[in-house]
Amino acid sequence: MITLKDYDGPVKPDWCPACGNFAQLSAIKNVLVEMNIEPKDVAVVSGIGCSSNLPEFIKSYGFHGLHGRLLPVASAIKWANPKLTVIGYGGDGDGFFEGTQHFFHTAKRNIDITYVVSDNQIFGLTTGQASPTSEIGFISKSTPDGNIERPINPLTFALAAGATFVARGFSGDPKHLHDLIKAGIQHKGFSFIDVFSPCVTFNKTNTYDYFRKRVYKYESPDRENFADAYRACEEWGDKIPIGIFYQVKRDTYEENDPVYRKGPLVDMPYRGILEEDLEEFY
Known about the structure:
This protein is an alpha/beta fold. 30% of the residues lie in helices and 16% in strands. It has an eight-stranded mixed beta sheet with strand order 2-1-3-4-6-5-8-7, sandwiched between helices. Helix 1 (21-34) packs across helix 6 (174-186), helix 3 packs across helix 4 and helix 4 crosses helix 5 (154-161).
């Protein structure tokens, strides 16, 4: 049986005390244990940011990529070895600024990976600039007179791109978050989970108290209804829904790729690299 100790990473988390990332790390590890998935069968890929240090804190295959580029790496890993449970993990700055194009195309292709975003509505690693999800009027180092840009809605963006699983969680409700991540990993296709993750050091607006007063658990009467999901994802203000908004079955990219008719790359015979293969680079 797999235990939590099996997933203890080589480095202890160094996030600020009470950072929302702790709850997400705990939820991911607990879900993998509950699903009895061995560390050797897991790959965690991250970008750049406070949250993106997570691969160092969990014992599995890990890849710390470039800013906003985690999803192409995660996709390549899944294509090469579909037997792996592939989890992409990053922040709102990483995913919705530098990584927006990759986010869109990975969702459109419906690649069978789970993408968890630690959304603290600020750039935390660089000490407090407005991020793509910062609200209008948000005061930060980069917006001392208040943010004038309309924030991106990651959920409706994911829906429009073609994601087949769209959900939102809150680090202040770890049990609910655990259930969302488990459902996302179990889903066959691109699973997107946006997580409200308060930055206790640099964001004094979107705090745990801020979200506890507003979030409520959304229960969809029909998760395959795109219009209902879109309307629910648009709700914002005094009431903010969390939960699974949309889930539908659709062929994955891997299932329709002609290369896979011969089987996944990991099962192909190794031919080796010959000198003539490299001649053009000399």
